[in-house]
Amino acid sequence: NPLEDAKRAAAYRAVDENLKFEDHKVIGIGSGSTVVYVAQRIGQYLHDPEYSDLTSKFVCIPTGFQSRNLILDNKLQLGSIEQYPRIDIAFDGADEVDEHLQLIKGGGACLFQEKLVSTSARTFIIVADSRKRSPKNLGRNWRQGVPIEIVPSSYVRVKNDLLEQLHAEKVNIRQGGSAKAGPVVTDNNNFIIDADFGEIIDPRNLHKSIKLLVGVVETGLFIDNASKAYFGDSNGAVEVME
Ligand code: DER
Is ligand 1 within 6 A of the CB of residue 105? Predict the structure, then answer.
């Protein structure tokens, strides 16, 4: 599967080039389909006798239910963000990456714990297939809007504020679709709003304005957070952005 090959290529290169077991003891593990290959790669090191004395000391911090299972499935050591509030290196996917390494994340509705982990890490590495790379601004490729985690009771108020104050073009509560009648409920028991602002010229300011709205828990705009991004394509080539 060419798309899976692209994801795997990016993830393997990112782990091989950035994870130093002698330095990195606490590792953040993101959510989504690309970071699966990060956990897989780390697991391969675990079972390599050459690394056995190093790998027993490190611990992986999840970014939600799926991420926690990914850590357990790969027989990695599971830790909590409460035990390890300072993280050495974190790996995660993204929905879109602009030319300044600003991100839209939250396609998988895990953005709160993802941002808690990524901003607690000294180094934050993005792994993605090349579709996620935007030639210019955010909002150009990713057309599903900015994911925003909100307190459920505030959804009408936040929707109105996004439309009237921040001039969003479209605002939707993310629904479970065929998987669940009614809205998606996050691992933190909140709702997700997707707000379409079209092409985003100033993501930093937009993030701040959204964050100040009453009822907003966190936004899917990850500003000045990623250190590097690895983009894989289907023939196994990987581009690195710093
Ligand atoms: O929700 C997120 O931000 C995830 O990291 C996700 O959107 C990335 O998804 P993918 O790795 O399955 O493309």
Answer: yes
User: Angle of helix 2-18 relative to helix 35-46, nearest 10 degrees?
Assistant: 50
Q: What is the spatial distance between Cα 28 and Cα 175, in angstroms, rounded to a whole number?
A: 28
Residue whose Cα lies nearest atom 5 of ligand 1: it is 93
Taking the centre of ligand 1 as the mean of its atom positions, its distance from the CA of residue 110, in whole angstroms, is 9
Q: In what order do the strands lie in the sheet with 146-150?
A: 170-173, 191-196, 146-150, 216-219
Q: How many CB atoms lie within 10 A of CB 123?
A: 18
Q: Which of 4, 29, 31 to mutate to test the pocket of ligand 1 (most atoms within 8 A of CB)?
A: 31
Tell me how far the alpha carbon of residue 8 lies from the centroid of ligand 1, in angstroms: 14
155-164 residue pLDDT tens: 999 999 999 9
Helix (H) or strand (E) holding 28: strand 26-29
Give me the active site residues, please.
114
Give the Cα-Cα-Cα angle 235, 143, 140 (nearest 5 degrees). 70
**pLDDT per residue over 98-157, tens digit each?**
999 999 999 999 999 999 999 999 999 999 999 999 988 999 889 999 999 999 999 999
Residue 28: closest CA among 80, 95, 103, 87: 87
Query: Which atom of ligand 1 is the closest one to the Cα of 92?
Result: 5
ipTM exceeding cut-off 0.85 for this assembly: yes
